[in-house]
Amino acid sequence: MAFLKKTVEKLAAGLSRTRQKFIGSLKTLFSGRKLDDQLLDDLEETLIQADLGVTSAMRIREDLQKAFTEKRVEGGDQAIEFLKDEIKKYWPESDRSVHMASEGPTVILVAGINGCGKTTSIAKLAYRFKSEGKKVCLAAADTFRAAAVQQLTIWADRIGVDIISGSGSDPASVVFDACDATVARGADILLVDTAGRLHTQDNLMRELTKIRDVVARKIPGAPHEVLLVLDGTTGQNAINQAKAFSAAIDVTGIFLSKLDGTAKGGIVVAIRNEVDLPVKFIGIGEGYEDVEPFDPEPFVEALFA
Ligand SMILES: Nc1nc2c(ncn2[C@@H]2O[C@H](COP(=O)(O)OP(=O)(O)O)[C@@H](O)[C@H]2O)c(=O)[nH]1
Ligand SMILES: [Mg+2]
User: One fold for both 2-93 and 100-295?
Assistant: First the structure.
């Protein structure tokens, strides 16, 4: 429980702006009012404004209305407790864990648009896995900008993990070499950084498929995870990105970055209800320690803290 408390505190700080906008207004909304259609309309509007998305807002509204009809909820305070419990149930444990190879190295491919936080999120994952005693390699397959390789190299040095970067501009060949190095060095995890791309850039989406195919040929069962990094400050556009990327590559989970200092933390709920993808990790700062596996219990507690 001490762990849970610390996580809630850290998350609560990161989510303070979401809370001010979202829960702050919910408390005001419910205070001293009776649960009628007007209140339910207001609730729905607040939830949409807090980026939970239309699907989630309607679902929550209907659930609350039903609970009210059945007299399981009577006043405003009870409504908030009820909402917390309902929202926590959206994420069963089974789809939040990271898929690991049963034998040999685990390969995690990381994709997303420019600036969404891919490289920083890789540093965070590398740090976490290293802290768990795993040997980690990074593949610098964002060959578009020299600065991108440099940035990843700085993280690798700081965290103390291996990095494989190529001299050429072909990301698939960097990944090819990185797979060999991972196996040769007996590493447990290979994290693959990739260049930012938009789903509308067909050639770049094909390049991503090619990277995935190289990994699949080199290491059995790879990639074990394809994580899409979504910038938590973008709100509803994140949903469009998630839909498009999952159509192009088989995304297995979301790394939702920049949840600190955003008022759009409600997007976690929208991603659950509008795209059928689990959020596996959340980024709550620029440092490599600023990451949490997504857990609905502390998350919802922090959202309503
Ligand atoms: N506040 C905050 N900033 C972040 C987080 N993740 C990444 N960033 C910042 O977002 C910017 C872009 O990150 P980067 O990893 O280079 O994105 P990439 O282009 O997708 O590789 C950098 O300034 C990062 O420090 C986060 O969780 N919180
Ligand atoms: Mg990058």
Answer: no
Q: How far apart are CA 1 and CA 294, in angstroms?
A: 17
**Which residue minimizes the CA distance to atom 25 of ligand 1?**
286
Report the nearest-CA residue for atom 17 of ligand 1. 117
Question: What percent of the chain has a predicted confidence (pLDDT) above 70?
Answer: 97
CATH of domain 2-93: 1.20.120.140
Q: How confident is the model at residue 26 (pLDDT cuts 50, 70, 90)?
A: confident
Task: Write down the pLDDT at residue 5.
Answer: 59
Distance 120 CA to ligand 1 centre (A): 5
In angstroms, what is the span from residue 282 Cα to ligand 2's centroid? 17
Q: Is 112 in the pocket of ligand 1 (CB under 6 A)?
A: yes
Q: How far is the CA of 70 from the centre of ligand 1 (A)?
A: 46
CATH class of 100-295: alpha beta
pLDDT of residue 6: 60
Report the nearest-CA residue for atom 26 of ligand 1: 258
- Full-model pTM: 0.91
Q: Which ligand is nearest to the CA of 122?
A: 1
| CA gap 147, 303 in Å, rounded | 36
Pocket probe for ligand 1: among 257, 260, 262, the residue whose CB has the most ligand atoms within 8 Å is 257
